[in-house]
Amino acid sequence: MITIEMQRNNGDFGFEAKDEMGHLIQTDSSSGTGGNDSGFRPMQLLLAALGGCSAIDIVSVLKKQKQVIEGFKMKIEGKREEDKQPALWKMIHITFELQGNIELSKAQRAADLSMEKYCSVTETLRRAGAEITWSVQLNAA
């Protein structure tokens, strides 16, 4: 079992989350809802988790294929349901931006494997109704 401990540390809605190894994440609400904007909003953390999960998969696959990754960035964009409570993620698009001596077909295949087979966060969001798309950019300026 995994345990995360959270403690309020900044105003009404600011919390610090800590895992068993002592890693920390700050969460908060927006200033428009009474928070201080001092950390990730919980729904943003879902997008960050999606990025982290898929990145681990993609790097693992490409390393096994002897591809040289010199840089890796992502842009994760999401749109939530409107006029609903709770408002779930409706559409999410990830752009994987890879730099290095990497074959485009292998990078695309690694992203496909992550997003269609390996990433548990992707499947969790998909089962909640999110439409998830992705694209790969290689050595873009």
Structure in words:
The strands form two sheets. The chain has a three-stranded antiparallel β-sheet with strand order 1-2-3, with no helix packed on it. A three-stranded mixed β-sheet has the order 4-5-6, with helices on one face. The protein is α+β, with helices and mostly antiparallel strands. α1 crosses α2 and α1 crosses α3. The protein is globular. A hairpin with a 5-residue loop joins β2 and β3.
Which helices and strands occur, and which strands form pairs?
Blueprint: E1 5-10, E2 14-18, E3 24-27, H1 42-64, E4 68-80, E5 89-101, H2 104-118, H3 120-127, E6 131-138
Parallel strand pairs: 5-6
Antiparallel strand pairs: 1-2, 2-3, 4-5
Proportion in β-strands: 25-35%
Strand order of the largest sheet: 1-2-3
Largest sheet: 3 strands, antiparallel
- Write down the domain tally: 2
Query: What's the CATH superfamily of the largest domain, by name?
Result: K homology (KH) domain
State Rg: 17 Å
Terminal CA distance reads 43 Å
Q: So, CATH architecture of the largest domain?
A: 2-Layer Sandwich
The fold-level CATH name of the largest domain is: GMP Synthetase, Chain A, domain 3
What's the average pLDDT?
A: 97
**Any idea of the CATH class of the largest domain?**
Alpha Beta
Instruction: Specify the helix fraction band.
Output: 25-40%
Which regions are unreliable across 5 or more consecutive residues at pLDDT < 50?
none
What is the succession of H and E elements? EEEHEEHHE
The number of distinct β-strands equals 6
General shape: globular
User: What structural class do the secondary elements suggest?
Assistant: alpha+beta
